[in-house]
Amino acid sequence: MPQLDDFLAEHKDRFESDLFDLLAIPSISADSDYKSDLLRAGQWVAEKFRRIGLSVEMVETAGHPIVYAESPPVEGAPTVLVYGHYDVQPPDPLDEWISPPFEPTCRDGNVYARGATDDKGQMLTHVLSAEAWMETAESLPLQIKYVIEGEEEVGSEHLAPFIAENKEKLACDVVVISDTSQFAPGQPAITYGLKGIAYFELRVQGPRQDLHSGTFGGAVSNPCNGLAHILSSLVDEEGRVQIPGFYDDVLPLDSRERRQFAGLPFDERGFMEQIGVEAVHGEAGYSTLERRWARPTYDVNGIWGGYQGEGEKTVLPAKAGAKFSFRLVPDQDPKKIAEALREHLTAVCPPGLELELEERHGAPGFVVSLDSPFMSAAALAIEQGFGRSPVFIREGGSIPIVTCMSEHLGADVLLLGWGLDDDNTHSPNEKFSLTDFHRGIKSSAHLWRELSRIGAS
Amino acid sequence: MPQLDDFLAEHKDRFESDLFDLLAIPSISADSDYKSDLLRAGQWVAEKFRRIGLSVEMVETAGHPIVYAESPPVEGAPTVLVYGHYDVQPPDPLDEWISPPFEPTCRDGNVYARGATDDKGQMLTHVLSAEAWMETAESLPLQIKYVIEGEEEVGSEHLAPFIAENKEKLACDVVVISDTSQFAPGQPAITYGLKGIAYFELRVQGPRQDLHSGTFGGAVSNPCNGLAHILSSLVDEEGRVQIPGFYDDVLPLDSRERRQFAGLPFDERGFMEQIGVEAVHGEAGYSTLERRWARPTYDVNGIWGGYQGEGEKTVLPAKAGAKFSFRLVPDQDPKKIAEALREHLTAVCPPGLELELEERHGAPGFVVSLDSPFMSAAALAIEQGFGRSPVFIREGGSIPIVTCMSEHLGADVLLLGWGLDDDNTHSPNEKFSLTDFHRGIKSSAHLWRELSRIGAS
What we know:
2 domains; alpha+beta; 9-stranded mixed β-sheet; 4-stranded antiparallel β-sheet; homodimer
């Protein structure tokens, strides 16, 4: 595609200028003071689609609008849905920014601004690649539907119902999202799996009120002692969750995946230094990357009870509590896990304590087959954009909207990350490499071609 | 002693009036606004001693003064030291008091006021009994030394050095303290054992800063998980502490004690209802009273870490911590326990976590032989005061000053409780039964006689 590649090379400055325009709008979805800026950012994106020649719709919601755009269907070619978001995280703490968060500034080949990588910069690559096609070929080689929302940073409250209610309109063969990272600088990655989650809050009630630990200690169960016992009973010393049936539905890592993970240039020593620990530790029999990406885990996220102040208080507390969560992998079912947890808790609860378990949030894990034709197409496109084949990785985090789209639209999802781990997403001095911005646009432009060759479903 | 008993019967009103005078002084040691009231209360006690005919000294300290008084030595009779305190707890919350805390008010045979039972009322019984002796016999049958301090409710900071520096002046055969409770209304008790304590704060450090539990969970030790594991490892499900050597120096309950405890009219169902639990639970093989009074115990007093707010935060916290304590029994040594604990912690600490253990407070337990002649003398005296033999009990709490006196003066300690468990010590509406006040004075008056028969050491 020499013509397309030439166009991309010639228009780099203009693409950057588009990016800077959008980054200059403080579209902070968490702060209602910025409501008009959200609208402005949404309109900017909509106007961009209009100029490219796509049909555009501003979908009003009770929150910020969803920008929907689409190109015409192309017979014999699949339909792709691009998801992204135009809202950004709050920039606080402001005094830690070297240049102001909404005055995009270039330093060392990066643009610094809130939203640079998350997600304005990454999202725009898929818009500008469409522009390149329209300008050079006057049409796209396949139908693209764009869903660009303004509430990703505040929980996508209105996007899920929009998707559920518009399954036909949004029907597609594959969803493309660029809101993740490369494996390392210059080493692009396709994220083909995400973990799910089952998040709980447990409250333990003992005596009616705080008691003197001298007068009553040792005679009745102490909720803090009990909580420690219960939380500790959920896992053994080798990192294996002890809830009966917990691993029943776990899709095991296959040998190809294990080989791939093992072949990645993962620097475990550097990882330890980065987070400041003397040792890694996790489920026996698995590597650090396997534990992070593809094995279910158990973390206490918060714990409280009794006296937390200075000095000593000889109290036998009336209550204690904890928040804890399991990161799930396919095909674990959060509801089934919650039921098994309830049974386990009943079995291990010390006499005289009452437990209250609240199921806070549950989502299944997600994995795309490495054999999917979309995966191969994306790999080819990325190789053309980055000059290097992508590696196939998974992530320990959850992206609820991915699960939602995968479930409602029945489509595969391609997570194509142009960002870097140290891009300061959600922190001061967020950045995005301009080289990677252009590589992303080129990869995207080639992706439309590669995907179009697959044929319609 | 008909003359003495008659005197006590005739002067009941005046004794009560003395008590009310002292209770009206707001000697709140925790609040520096009341410094002059502390002085006033100390002077009131000193003046009382002077009127009785004892030699008196106001011992200045960097805090509130200690009132020291003594009667002349009596050849062939032992010397007794009476300890008590004239300071009181703060009365907050004030709006829960039915009558104002420093306006002593009689209702249902009780006087309601802050300090009524803790310790002005109980302490005065031993002063008024001496007055009765002086008025009826013109002398006491044995030498009494009084140490009445004004800082008990704030930790007795200046009393310990006073005792350590005045061992000869304070030399005695037995110490008498009334700052505890009867076993039940009308069933007096001699407390012959107290527990000691070893109080710790443990801080657990994991990664340098809070991490995303999705990206990092399962790959590094989580300080909250680790803390639960460590705290849980300290005890088994049957309530037995798991630190190697923990029970090595425990003085076992002998069969006489176990029979006595078992014979007490302890209402376990009522105990459970009182504190609001469905079941008692503790060290296997021991009764509730044995666990509370004479077996070492382990309680987590406070626990913290990670996110304690509303909703969910998917954090792998950087740190966590807990305060926990062991109640010790004779002859456990808090220092030895701390050393064994350190070794245990090192053995069970999960990889990648750093532990910081702070030894906050340690004191050994305390027990007086039931065969001591002072014990028999006190039992006889109490039988005369209350019309009923006392039962012999122990307590799960610690009274640091008891340990201090026992160690420095090498004397036995008699804890003769005239109060009741529901006297609201440290709570609003503190009270003291006036019947028990007079029974206490009479028991005390007879105690001087019974002790004088033992002979000097």
